[in-house]
Amino acid sequence: VIPVHHLPPELLLATSAGRTDEATALVAAVHLTLCPTCRADLARLDAVGGALLEAAPAEATKVPDALWAKLDAAVPEPTPPAPAPSGKVLLPRPLVRYLGVADVDRLPWKRILPGADELHLPLDRNGTPVRMTRTRGGFVLPRHTHEGTEMTLVLAGGFTDGGEHFARGDLSVCGPSVTHTIHFDPGDPCVALVVNEGHLVPKSAWAKALSWFVDF
Ligand SMILES: [Zn+2]
Fold first, then answer.
1. Cys-Cys with 139: which of 4, 8, 184, 194 at CB 3.0–4.6 Å?
2. Ligand 1 mean position to 87 CA, how many Å?
3. Residue 216 C-alpha to ligand 1 middle, in angstroms?
4. 167 C-alpha to center of ligand 1: Å?
5. Distance CA 185, CA 192 (A)
6. Distance (Å) from CA 72 to ligand 1 centroid
């Protein structure tokens, strides 16, 4: 399955320029392992960046059409990634670097709610820990909003948010003002990498979710 929800252009540009914080770089790296489309786009950007470095500074602001055409011709068509091995959810390599194991079932999950587990990576963004979440099929996270941007990258299973479906490899980026309800797919659990930005450090985002349940 090739992802349909990709890295936003500004994130691709920042990745190419090496100007992302570590948590964002991790999200980008994991998506890139699962997405041939973004890999090809990044290869184009990297090539343009290289070409711009060689160009005179005065001319560095505009990429000639002829160069774009050449780059388009140079990048091979994306090849679909190998299908996920059946039965087991294996994590992409950039995540294994942080977690030590590839098998999702061997991670030290902590139960936060009935049907919802999480664990913190040894990494944070502005003080908010980067998390892995595992949510049982059919779970519904009621209407809620965020203090800052939230990036959710699906690694297994899927969910629907605002009429859009997200599955393995798909990236959901929600701004701070977005109020949404998340419906997880029935069946297998949904495993995701979640990066929130915010200056406050909540005890856990799922604890907040619990309060939404109570208000619901
Ligand atoms: Zn992509």
1. 184
2. 24
3. 35
4. 12
5. 13
6. 17
**pLDDT tens readout for residues 88-132:** 888 999 999 999 999 999 999 999 889 999 999 999 988 889 999
For ligand 1, the distance from its centroid to the CA atom of residue 6, given in whole angstroms, is 4
CA of 32 to the centre of ligand 1 (A): 6
DSSP state string for the chain: ---SS---HHHHHHHHHT---HHHHHHHHHHHHH-HHHHHHHHHHHHHHHHHHHS-GGGTT---HHHHHHHHHHSPPP-PPPPPPSS--B--HHHHHHHS-SBGGGS--EEEETTEEEEEEEEEETTEEEEEEEE-TT-EEEEE--SS-EEEEEEES-EEETTEEE-TT-EEEE-TT--EEEEEPSSSPEEEEEEE--SS--S-HHHHHHHHHHH-
The pLDDT score that the predictor gives to residue 27 is 97
Reply yes or no on whether the pLDDT at 212 is more than 70. Answer: no
